Amino acid sequence: MTTGQPAILAEGLVKRFGDITALGGVSFEVPVGKVLGLLGPNGAGKTTAVRILTTLLRPDAGSAHVLGVDVTVDPHTVRGSIGLAGQYAAVDENLTASENLKMVGRLTHMPATDIGPRGRELLQQFALGDAADRVVRTFSGGMRRRLDLAASLMHRPPVLLLDEPTTGLDPQGRSELWDVIEDLTAEGVTVLLTTQYLEEADQLADYIVVVDHGLVIAEGTVSALKAQLGATVIEVALRSVDEATVAATKLESVGPVAIDGKVVHVTLLDGDGGAAMLETVRALDGAQLQPATLVLREPTLDDVFLELTGHVAEQAVENGTDVPVPGGRRRRRRRS
Amino acid sequence: MTSVSTPPRATSSLAQVNRPRIFGDAMTIAWRNLVNVRRNPQLLAFATIQPVIFILNFRYVFGGAISTRSLGGTSYVNYLMPGIFVQTVVFGALTTAVGLAGDLNLGIIERFKSLPIARSAVLTGRTTADLARNLFVMILMCLIGFAVDWRIQSDVWGLLAAVLLILAFSYALSWIFAFVGLSVKDAETAQAASFPILAPLVFASSAFIPVQTMPGWLQPWVKHQPVSVVCNAARDLTLGLPAGSDVLKASAWIVGIVAVFAPLAVRKYRKVT
Does B225 touch chain A (CB under 8 A)? Predict the structure, then answer.
């Protein structure tokens, strides 16, 4: 019995393309039924890791196992137990939605009698029921992405790899896809998800591995990462710089303070934001100061990323301008 | 808890279910490619209208300039038709390259490679679909040929043998162009890369014009290159001439091309990312 064995295990993965090191020794594991978020900017090596796990690339060093099977030793068995949906929505434009699913069903050697019902079930589940017999060429980007995901699920793979599943989707398409992915994880499917959207990892993943320039730079549960790296902050905006200076001295009892113009940041060293807030209000009131705004801010994954990498996750820059790189080649990003 | 029981069950059953099915997988891919042809009217139009234009053009425009004396007494249309058949399948082979390069670019090859299918399936499926398309085009061209006074001088078996030989040649060519299609970046490049290979094969051949009318230095190449050899064999078979040696040479070319390019293409497919 293999209870306790992780569904996905990557150990020291190294992959170079010429003189570019896409992965410089990356390790992670995904327990059965869990969702791992592989988070990082473009060119961090996320896609390369997925391509190794899906047997599309061989690592130069290190090893990868899916359900205990080594991807380089027995790639065929691995292919039978994984589903892959990617950022390129690899569906056939000239087939209808149901024909696409039929093709994948046949190629995954599902019983012939199971293919039709399973296809219809997935199309319903992904809100493509009405478009079942439409040629995919006429689909919107979100519909294609949902079909791509449906295709990857045809043969009920126990392990699902999603490579930036929502890149390029509008907010509605993204939230629809999130719902679908959440449903899947509720069914016990193991998911490895790559994303450059911090809120996406926050929303979907049980555990996050942050990669940058081919290396793991942090990992942990979402809450652990936040606790470890981004402290809760109280932001007090005053009406003048003078007031801010006064407030800062009064608030030193709450925690370390920093002044940024008219704004005072108070970093909370222990977790009790409510008590600290109350103390802040009292201190301000005692000094007869009335803040313009007073905010208790939980750290976001953006803060985490900034703290870890020294540069902002590049999602804002990438949005809408992201160009798919053929073959998933790593693209160098300028550090900001 | 399902999360504990799922993987072992899945691993064992999937390992049994998912042995590669060399024939079945290829047929699924072929089906998919044929649906693509049907859904892409431009591709079908290219495959059918172009040879028809070639027939009419050579039969009625250029044909008058070629003396029947140089053809050994047969009419030009009887000389021409086997050549047009071969020319059509040669240019048709380009669609193998264009189609594969397109799939590669759209990420469909990626999906196929992540599925538990036979390594050869995508390529044999593609070449098989192209074979079916060629069969359709050949039947259409025979009908057009008959309408413009092409007459078989041998018998129906001679015609069938000629058609089979040309289809076998088209299949061999598909493997060359599968290799080309996997070696280039996109469909446009595939098209551009294919033409320089095709043009000297088709035009410096006995497809349209008797070899004797060409300059002496060119003749050795023209006589022995595969397009000429297949044209000659098909011509012998339809004109009722002794065909044995030409058919043998043509078969040698066909077997040779497949033997070299099928492994090359499959290897390229494995490596391509």
Answer: no
Q: What are A220-238's pLDDT values in tens digits?
A: 887 787 776 666 788 899 9
Residues in CB range of B228: below 8 A, 6 or more apart = B205, B206, B207, B211, B222
Q: At what angle do helices B94-106 and B76-92 cross, to 10 degrees?
A: 20
Q: What's the domain range around A160? A: 8-227
- Tokens standing for residue B159: 């015609």
Å from A329 to nearest chain B CA? 9
Token output for A71: 């991807």
Same domain, A256 and A217: no
Q: Are residues A248 and A212 in the same domain?
A: no
Instruction: Please list every residue in chain A whose beta carbon sits closer than 8 Å to the beta carbon of residue B108.
Output: 90-92
Q: What is the pTM of this model?
A: 0.78
> What ipTM was reported for this prediction?
0.81
CA dihedral B11, B17, B21, B27 (to 10 degrees): -110
User: What is the distance in angstroms between the Cα of B43 and the nearest Cα belonging to chain A?
Assistant: 12
What SS3 state is found at A74?
A: coil
Q: Is A90 on the interface with B (CB under 8 A)?
A: yes
| Contact between chains at B17 and A99 (C-beta distance less than 8 A) | no
Distances (CA, A) of A111 to A102, A106, A114, A152, B9: 11, 8, 5, 16, 17
Contact between A80 and B14 using a beta-carbon 8 Å cutoff: yes
- Are A207 and A268 in the same domain? no
Going from N- to C-terminal start, the domains of chain B cover: 20-271
Tell me which of A106, A144, A156, A330 to substitute to probe the interface with B (most B C-beta atoms closer than 10 Å). A106
- The encoded tokens of residue A253 equal 């009892």
Whether the CB of B267 is below 8 Å from some CB of chain A: the reply is: no
- pLDDT at position A322: 36
Instruction: Give the nearest partner residue to B115 out of A79, A94, A326, using CB atoms.
Output: A79
Indicate whether A309 belongs to any domain: no
Query: Chain A closest CA to B104's CA: distance in Å?
Result: 9
Find all residues with CB under 8 Å of A121, minimum gap 6, and list them.
none
Contact predicate A140/A172, CB 8 Å: no
Per residue in B65-101, pLDDT tens? 777 777 777 888 888 889 999 999 998 888 888 888 8
